[in-house]
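User: Here's a chain of 244 residues. Predict its fold as tokens.
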Amino acid sequence: MTETRASEKSLNREHRKRLKERFRKGPQDGFSDREMLELLLAYALPGSDARQTAKALAHRFKGLRGIFDASVEELTSVEGITENAAVLVKLIKGAASMYLKERMMGRDIILSPREAIDYLNFTLSGEKVEKFLAIFLNARNEVLAVEVLHEGTINQTAVYPRKAIERAFKHNARAIIFVHNHPSGDATPSHVDKHLTKVLDRAALAVDLIVHDHLIIGKNRHFSARENGWIIGCPVNLQRAAET
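Assistant: Prediction complete.
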């Protein structure tokens, strides 16, 4: 029995070594989700059979997205996953979120919105509660800051326009993009969402702030208030063009 366990450990070490070499040499797009997870767990669970643990995680949470969205408590409920391993998984998602945020900062996200959408989809994915965020922009539509203004059920009184305006002034912002998620994963807007968009839009226009959009983030898609005609304000240059 001892010889068998020693042989299994040796095979596991060789397998991890091969995975590490493949990852180091790249490209990483040749890795399957399962192999990527195995390599990650190899650092969190040295000496264990990462292949079986990765298989159990993938089966329970239906892939990497579900794994990264799971809580520490949910992860540790899977046999073989220690608290340290669960925290490492959450740390990886947190670091990736910070990377996407930094990549977005200082960019004109009106002309190139992909970075913002990637960041928002990744960061808000798996959230169990609603979060209401504001992305503050300068006159060149470059991102100055991203702040969570409210956590919890969104309604017409929960997110006060005053707070959004005050934070915009603090950052010397010229424009704002409002964002909130639907934990259900369905990005379809509600009547409350539409009313809140109008309230925030009018409050911003009163102090010469441009509301570029109000995005609702779901699981696989997002809703744009601007694209659906909810935003009554528009950038100053477009207003001037319409008046001439």
